[in-house]
Structure formats: structure tokens, C-alpha cells
Amino acid sequence: MCSLIFLSATSCTWEQMTPQFDCSVSPVQLELIDSNDSECGVSDGSFTVQASGGEPPYTISSESATNSEGVFENVPAGNYTVLVTDANDCSEELNVEIQNANGVNLTKIETLIAGCQSNDGGIEVIATGGVEPYLYTLNGGSEQASNVFSALSSGSHTIGITDQEGCSVTGNVQVLSGVSYSSSIEKIIKNNCTSCHGVSASPSFDSYDEIRAHAASIKRVTGNKSMPRGATISQDEIDRIACWVDDGALSN
Q1: Which of 21, 52, 153, 192 could form a disulfide with 228 if both were Cys (CB 3.0 to 4.6 A apart)?
Q2: Strand (E) positions, 117-182?
Q3: Please, what is the Cα angle at 223 between 221 and 228, to 5 degrees?
Q4: Can you give the pTM of this predicted structure?
Q5: Considering just the CA atoms, what is the radius of gyration of the chain in Å?
Q6: What is the 3-state secondary structure (H, E, C) of 182-245?
Q7: 171, 113, 121, 117: which is closest to 149 by C-alpha?
Q8: Contact of 192 with 208, CB cutoff 8 Å
Q9: How far is CA 10 from the centre of its chain?
């Protein structure tokens, strides 16, 4: 893919930037077609997803495997995050739950935000089925009787639940930092970046959609302090950008 060279304004200099396809023009979509629950303790569940739109070929991945067909077999009970990526590097996620047919299942997860660069996050797990009392684990750690986990950092965490008959299930949960785009990130970018990335620039950071499309690049160049040109942002602002991007660059 060729590089796009643009001339920035005021204190900006010539920069090279890899153009990114506008995924909103032809979005890729993902649909659950079929699923079968698993017997407790046996990896005999399955699910099939179908990708459409975007630009084939597709790469479809979950915690169990990666393929181009969207068929996942011989999977144990659990919650799966399925990601499809097309030829333009556009992507879409879908959550699929495979339950224990005759055992404990993860019913609900509540989370508390962690804060940026903080460990104030929390998880509360609600399980049903099987034989109580349950034992819980976090990220493969020691079992505990409590269904609450605290003092967590933001990011992805894996919850495990086991009942008294040894039936188990796992699930993934994202604890957010809670950094807000509207009250924090937008102001940082508008105050420091739009002199170079205004309406007539390429890329333009004049709207949320444009900023989100380049979120990973913004995190990278602010993190290594090569950007913004002609301005200095604090480490706190750099951290908040990184936390927001890691949360999924939400419109919050």
C-alpha cells in the first residue's frame, strides 16, 4: 500500500502517513448462524458464523481457532469473542455463548471502571445451574468462594467458575478505564492536533469518526512523543489517550 504525503499547516512539517480505508463505506458484518451447547466437561460444543460485506477474503478468529470459514467445532462451554477482519483491515466483533448443557453457566458479569493507570476496577460474577457452592478464579489464579474481584486494572480478564461436581465454564470480560472522549480526549486532540489535522488536512481529526479511525496511530505517535508537532502534551494526557484507545476508542 502506498504512502500518502501531506503538507501540514503553521508549525507542522511534511509527514508520511499510511492511508486508511474508510470502513463505513463498506462495513464488514458478522452473523451467528448456528450453535450447539457442550456437555459438561466435554469439548463437544460448536458454533458457525457468517461474514458479509466489506472486502473478502475474511479472517475469522475466536479464542478457540482462526479460519476463513467461520466454523468452530469441539469447543467447551464459555463465552467467545469472534472477530472478522476483511481485506481492507476493517473488522467487526460478535459475542457467542456456548453453555454447559447440564451444569454451571455464567449468567451475568457486572464491572466497575478501573480508572486510567489505576487499579480501582472490579468484577462481580453471577452463575446459575450445576451444584452449588461455586468456586471462582480470575485469570487462572487461585480458586475463591467469593464471586467478587476487586483492585483490578483495566483490560481483558478471564473468569472461571467450577461447581461441586467439577463442571466448569469460563468467560472473558473487559474492565474499562472509563476515560471519556467527550470530556477528555476530544479536548486534547482539538487543542493540540487540529492545527495540522484540520478540515482540509489528510487525515482530518475534525470529527469523532475520523479520530476513531486513526485511534491506534494517535496512541502510537503520542506515546513515542513524535506527535503533536509544535506542541507538548503532558504524560497524563498521553496516558489518557492510551487508556481511551485500549477501551475501544468509545464515543463516551
Answers
A1: 192
A2: 121-128, 135-138, 148-152, 155-162, 168-175
A3: 50
A4: 0.78
A5: 22
A6: HHHHHHHHHHHCCCCCCCCCCCCCCCHHHHHHCHHHHHHHHHCCCCCCCCCCCHHHHHHHHHHH
A7: 121
A8: no
A9: 36
